[in-house]
């Protein structure tokens, strides 16, 4: 099974509860088709780099999962059908990206380096 990452931008007109329901719907599509969800990250409402459908903000959500290639097609069809989804992007992660994401989740990049005492 390959590892994938899908970023979804939902319309900002949704309430927080409805946005969570939409994300749960897509997560259910993945799990019902045999995908294993590795990580979900809700980024919340963010400013867009350019207008999409005359909107300057969007509700972002990132999902990282393992599945076979056929599941991606099913997920993307449902994403295209849903009017609440403004944009989405699915990428396949190579072994380096998977290792980077694992390190990022464990906090390896956020640790402060300890200062060493210099003996004079």
Automatic annotation (TrEMBL):
Keywords for this entry? Ribonucleoprotein, Ribosomal protein, RNA-binding, rRNA-binding
> What CDD domains does its record include?
bS6
Chain's gene name:
rpsF
Q: What function does the entry list?
A: Binds together with bS18 to 16S ribosomal RNA.
Name a GO CC annotation attached to this entry.
Answer: ribosome
Q: Which family does it belong to?
A: Belongs to the bacterial ribosomal protein bS6 family.
Q: What is this protein called?
A: Small ribosomal subunit protein bS6
């Amino acid at each position: 099974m390959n590892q994938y990452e899908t970023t979804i931008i939902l319309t900002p007109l949704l309430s927080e509860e409805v946005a969570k329901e939409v994300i749960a719907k897509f997560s259910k599509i993945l799990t019902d088709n045999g995908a294993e969800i590795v990580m979900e990250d809700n980024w919340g409402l963010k400013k867009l780099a350019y207008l999409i459908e005359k909107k300057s903000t969007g509700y972002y959500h990132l999902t990282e999962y393992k599945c076979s290639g056929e599941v991606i097609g099913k997920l993307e069809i449902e994403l295209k059908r849903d009017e609440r989804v403004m944009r989405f992007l699915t990428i396949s992660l190579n072994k380096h990206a998977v290792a980077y994401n694992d390190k990022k989740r464990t906090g390896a990049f956020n640790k402060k380096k300890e200062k060493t005492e210099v003996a004079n």
